[in-house]
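[worker-b] picked up task from shared queue
[worker-b] task type: protein-ligand structure
[worker-b] ligand name resolved to pyruvic acid; SMILES cross-checked against name lookup, match
[worker-b] sequence length check passed
[worker-b] input payload:
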Amino acid sequence: MLIGVPKEIKNNEYRVGLTPSSVRELTIHGHKVKIETMAGAGIGCSDEDYVAAGAEIVGTAAEIFATAEMVIKVKEPQKVEYEQLREGQLLFTYLHLAPDPDQTAGLIKSGATAIAYETVTDRNGGLPLLAPMSEVAGRMAPQVGATALQKANGGRGVLLGGVPGVAPAKVVVIGGGVVGTNAARIAAGMGADVTILDKNVKRLTYIDDVFGPRIKTQYATIDDTEALVFDADMVVGAVLIPGAAAPKLIRKEQLSKMKPGSVIVDVAIDQGGCFETSKATTHADPTYIIDDVVHYCVANMPGAVARTSTFALNNATLPFALALANKGWKQACKDDPHLAAGLNIHNGKVTYQAVADALGYDNLPLEQALS
Ligand SMILES: NC(=O)C1=CN([C@@H]2O[C@H](COP(=O)(O)OP(=O)(O)OC[C@H]3O[C@@H](n4cnc5c(N)ncnc54)[C@H](O)[C@@H]3O)[C@@H](O)[C@H]2O)C=CC1
Ligand SMILES: CC(=O)C(=O)O
Ligand SMILES: [Mg+2]
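[worker-b] inference finished, payload out:
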């Protein structure tokens, strides 16, 4: 199969779809890989590194979109990218369609087949292609939140870990999945007073078992969510209903009850965010303030630590990329229902129920898409 990797073009996105090691695995299996020149510059991999791994370097993204049978990316295609996709072509990347009607319409119009990293499943009920970036974003959340808490950045002027004789910051994490657990772990490591809220009691039990009293857990009733959020210095938004738009857990009218200068890090922003006042921001201009609450809502947080993130992402995506290239997408999805769960768009139709529900499309059932 001819596989193409364009350079990412989202604001401050330095990750790349394939590492040189992944290219080598694909070419050893008989596939041809085209990489846009300088696509790996942001992770410290040169065109020569890719050539040594067996890739061909091409000068423009247009050459990739015109020729590749499978396009492998990291971020959802931007307008100029989805306008170049075409029928019969396979796109394998993050999509986050539910909060993004324009991209969804663009992919439908293209006629291409699109498999979203974030809805591929595993046998334990996890999301194996989302998890590595959730680990990264979760671990970054206290770090970016701590910066936002500084006075010069609009924050309360509170140090996460406090000092002897002065209490640490109160950090509340809504959603105790991969992002939430990783955020809590780092915040606790920085000395903060950390509580995780979730609606899944089994998950709270797991967190309690693993972290003991270092991290408090609380069932996410409306009452307890409000009480904890209103008393917090930093709130991390980390909920997910796979493929769906994030539920809005804190409304605009509740924001004024939060402490002035407190900070929201809404990691769930890629699915639309779990605060009503959240709007996606970029690494170039990551925060804004509403009602004295600093909002950090960067939708591609892992792009800032592109090298760590790209290698972690490829560890997870490579087996699926190989299956797609070796068998073609249809057979690969027939053989693996977990990969098939990633199918979001095929031949002008939405094929993922939560996306269809969020945006008002008919859903083409998976069996029909695979027939
Ligand atoms: N902004 C960024 O750069 C990145 C964003 N993300 C996003 O972060 C979000 C979280 O991802 P993961 O942690 O991997 O998901 P996950 O599925 O591991 O965890 C989500 C948790 O939210 C809980 N939950 C769902 N509804 C809830 C509610 N109403 N109240 C309390 N808890 C609730 C679930 O029980 C689950 O434990 C996703 O939207 C993901 O796409 C992930 C990576 C990077
Ligand atoms: C998951 C996601 O949105 C990201 O890594 O950018
Ligand atoms: Mg994102």
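[worker-b] attaching auto-annotations
[worker-b] The chain has a mean pLDDT of 98.
[worker-b] releasing lock
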